[in-house]
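Researcher: I'd like a structural prediction for the single chain below. Treat it as a standalone chain; there are no partners to consider.
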Amino acid sequence: MNKTIPLRALPSEIPNTGGCNDAPVLRERGQREVFCGLTGIIWLHRKIQDAFFLVVGSRTCAHLIQSAAGVMIFAEPRFATAIIDDRDLAGLADANDELDRVVARLLERRPDIRMLFLVGSCPSEVIKLDLSRAAQRLTRQFAPKVAVLNYSGSGIETTFTQGEDACLTALVPTLPESTVGSPTQLLIVGTLADVVEDQFLRLFNEMGVGPVACFPPRRSTELPSIGPNTRFLLAQPFLGETARALESRGAQRIAAPFPLGVEGTTLWLQAAAACWGVDADHFEKTISSSRERASRALSRQRDALQGKTIFFFPDSQLEVPLARFLSRELKMTVAEVGSPYLHKQHLAEELAMLPADTLLSEGQDVEKQLDRCRRANPDLVVCGLGIANPLEQEGITTKWSIELVFSPIQGFDQAADLAELFSRPMRRRALLSHSLAHDAQAA
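Model: Treating it as a single chain, here is the predicted structure.
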């Protein structure tokens, strides 16, 4: 039977604040501001270095991907769009034949590709193309050199980070089965920057936890095996379907907070160490220097954020771990934590560390939430691109939530950088206000 391995922590390590596990949740199902799930390609194509992401969609999809990725001067990107035009939608051309020609031309031009993802931007009823069957057909044609998979990056999903969840879920069935009698393996699940991944691998190696594999891997030839001997740690809170797929293969999740900030990183590492039976003194010796260095760096950011109020609009599903980090380590007041979806099981350790009176909201009714935000009059608002500029126009300082997904924010060495992502817009607002006041005085 699949099970979750609970976090073993001393009472002093998770102070009892009452927590929000049993707190009422404001569930809203109105108009939403949602960024497109295709955005996940931007960090996934950098991670899996021999994979290619072919979006099957409109010219709008092509413009979105190019805008989100920026201009790549020094390297040819590993993503593109197979544009569906009016002829395809009207059934005047055989979309499967068109797709086969595009894929053949792509693989001929890019012989380095070992894994090709067909990413649907719309349901098959809209694009008149079953990408699942297309992926199976193309895999038969190009195997064993190239594996072809598919997933949906539809813009009508709950949140844009579901693009990664869908991609990794599609990868799980391709993972080899672990052999009987093989040692217990730790799997780190979720796309991390290489520098962050290397830091975690070094710490686990030093404390004697392993073997350790990462999912997704840096190359498709390094897919980890999976089975009842697999224990996995989620590095990202938006991988609910991936976790479900891994558990269906016999893997067991280790319950832990997410590795954001000094405290979150310590407890995340400790959860794995406890599962492996690592001695408490050895664990402390392994992480102490990194933790102390991170704590010193973080203290320099606290003065700018302590006592300030923050409001989270639902966007990335990172909101709950971020609220925990900001409230506990930087002493900010959380006015509201909105999230597109609250996975109570995966967030249980996070919710237990939030103040008991924290207002939690799931889903969105954007006009109602805007009204609550204005009444709260927070010092900083974390939100999507769609409402950031209008709020700035009203004099409310904002932080783009998508930047928190694009940036390396996990682990000890990134804790101060994560805090600075919140203090920076507040410094910018203060400088701007000072400059405007000076200009007004001069006039």
